[in-house]
Specification:
This protein has 269 residues and is mostly helical. The protein has two domains: 98 residues; 157 residues, no CATH class. Helix content is 73%, strand content 0%. The protein has 13 helices and no strands. α1 packs across α2. The longest helix is centred in the last third of the chain and has 32 residues. It is elongated and about 75 Å long.
Length: 269
Amino acid sequence: MASLFESLRHGDERGLHAAIETMAARMTSWAKGELRKRGINARSDLQPESLVQSVMAGGFERILRNAKDPEHFEATIRLALKHKLIDRLKRGGAMGPVRAFADFREEAENAMAALPTNGPRFEADLDAHKEFAKFDRFHRALTGADGLDATQWKILEDHLVHERSLGDIANDLGIQREAAKQRYATIRRRALALVHGHIARGLSTIAKMVAQKAFLDRADLDAISGATGLSEADVVFTLADEIVPAIVAQYGTAGAQVVAGLLGSRHAA
């Protein structure tokens, strides 16, 4: 990929043409893999070549220009192909109704916000034992070595699991509300860093970049897009398709809801 990446960026006209053809062939192979992985039979609007052409026409130059290295370039191209496929599936194919970006933004917000609230609640078809085990894993991840102390965990649990206000928590601690807010801000930064360190190892290169901006920098959608070179829709897809499932897999629905509260602003009052 390194030599192909160099040819795409700096090759002469003849070399560039050959590099584009080679890249298109690779992208077609990757697109076929995505279709096979999902058990999808190719149809007129889901042909691998059609997906590749859309990515080449719609964002290839931007991805190439913003890529930090060959590995970043390949990961971003693969992600763009995956998301082009998902988008066509969601909107009924290439000729389906165009979805407003507000739909994507809502999906990203709902991916975390729609998780269960008030601690470990389980639907009838969920294994409660496994869910409690995952929540215990979440507790241990946040309170282990270099983690939150007992008081910090109780503040976090009271605020995000039991939905107590910081004002009430301040009264319990015998401190001013502003002091409680400052303590919570410190707890949130530390907790998000711990969660990031726990889940990042299993993420793809692109998802790691998005997670770093979201968890460590608490960047908004526009800032994450600018820092990673991804479109805002691709950032949303990465959150909804990879990062959120990784959190749920590690911590269960209850632990993931706490993470949602740490990332969100609705619990800051």
